[in-house]
TrEMBL record:
This is F0F1 ATP synthase subunit gamma. The keyword Magnesium does not apply. Keywords: ATP synthesis, CF(1), Hydrogen ion transport, Ion transport, Membrane, Transport. It comes from the Bacteria. Its main location: membrane. It comes from Paraburkholderia translucens. It is a peripheral membrane protein. Gene3D superfamilies: 3.40.1380.10, ATP synthase, gamma subunit, helix hairpin domain (1.10.287.80). InterPro entries: ATP_synth_F1_ATPase_gsu, ATP_synth_F1_gsu. Produces ATP from ADP in the presence of a proton gradient across the membrane. The gamma chain is believed to be important in regulating ATPase activity and the flow of protons through the CF(0) complex. Signal peptide: none annotated. Belongs to the ATPase gamma chain family. PANTHER family: ATP SYNTHASE GAMMA CHAIN, ATP SYNTHASE SUBUNIT GAMMA, MITOCHONDRIAL.
Length: 293
């Protein structure tokens, strides 16, 4: 076998192995996306329970006291951007940081970045950020990361009278730029909760201010869990799409290598046949020359 054929076979074997790895990565990403989507129901159920409790407390609170928990709009601003911990997600992080840059240009504030890949890209883009943390690598780790983000956020404005907190994250869907969500966490919107007009008033064992503050902080934490879980599902959906594109590229390359192998092999066979034909034609002439006296 010629060196050219050996080289093509080696490259074909490497491409075949790469295609198997890509297929495994695509399967893992698809499974993680499904797991994240399944966990969203539990997070939202917990948020609904906390929201119901907030409504019950608001029913027992004078409106003026409840309004004190909503900071004014002209407050210090924190922008949390949820990126990825791992790569192979196409332009996922680029779109999120581009949105953050536009928001920061419109209204300055401190940027928090979730995800190592987002932090690296922010440094490349010279986007200043005040705090960062690694993104969850598995769905069950999302609640831990959300707790770290919540602690960092509350630590930033615990000594201030007011603050604004915005969350920027992706949601699963076909077009990434249309799936980026910007939601406000603080000032807290109490008007979204249904205040019961009937029924027995709740028995409160804590001061109203402390109870309502604790419930709102819990609700913000659950909103962070929801946003991070949606982003984790979107990240893995983007990875599935990237792996599909890579798989198509590898398959195209395998087809090209197979075509090259056949061409080179056919050229070698043709050369061998021509050599055999030339050898066969020369043999009778040599025999005849040897038979002459």
């Amino acid at each position: 076998m010629s060196s050219r054929l050996s080289e093509i076979e080696t490259r074909t074997a490497s491409a075949t192995q790469l295609d198997a790895v890509i297929g495994a990565m695509r399967g893992i990403a698809a499974a993680r996306e499904r797991e994240a989507q399944a966990r969203l129901a539990g997070i939202r159920s917990a948020a609904a329970t906390v929201g119901e409790a907030i409504g019950m407390v608001l029913a027992a609170a004078p409106p003026a006291r409840a309004e004190r928990f909503a900071p004014p709009e002209n407050a210090a601003r924190i922008l949390i951007v949820v990126c990825t911990e791992q790569g192979f997600v196409g332009g996922f992080n680029e779109h999120l940081l581009a949105r953050a840059e536009r928001l920061k240009a419109h209204e300055p504030g401190e940027v928090f970045i979730v995800g190592t890949r987002g932090t690296m890209l922010a440094q490349e883009r010279a986007l200043r950020y005040g705090w960062s943390v690694g993104m969850a690598a598995h769905a069950q780790d999302v609640v831990r990361v959300a707790g770290q983000v919540a602690d960092a956020v509350f630590a930033r404005f615990s000594d201030e009278a007011s603050s604004q907190v915005w969350l920027v994250h992706a949601t699963p869907g076909p077009v990434l730029d249309e799936r980026i969500v910007t939601r406000r966490l603080v000032p807290f919107d109490f008007t979204r909760f249904e205040v019961p007009s009937r029924g027995q008033a709740p028995l409160l064992n804590l001061p109203l201010d402390k109870l309502l503050t604790g419930l709102t902080e819990r609700y913000v934490y659950l909103e962070l869990c929801d946003g991070l879980m949606q982003s984790f599902a979107a990240e893995n959906a983007a990875r599935v799409a990237a792996m599909l594109a890579a798989s198509r590229h590898v398959k195209d390359r395998l087809q090209a290598l197979t075509r090259d192998y056949r061409i080179v092999r056919q050229d070698e066979i043709t050369a061998e046949i021509a050599e055999l034909a030339a050898t066969g034609a020369c043999a009778p002439a040599a025999a005849a020359a040897g038979a002459q006296p």
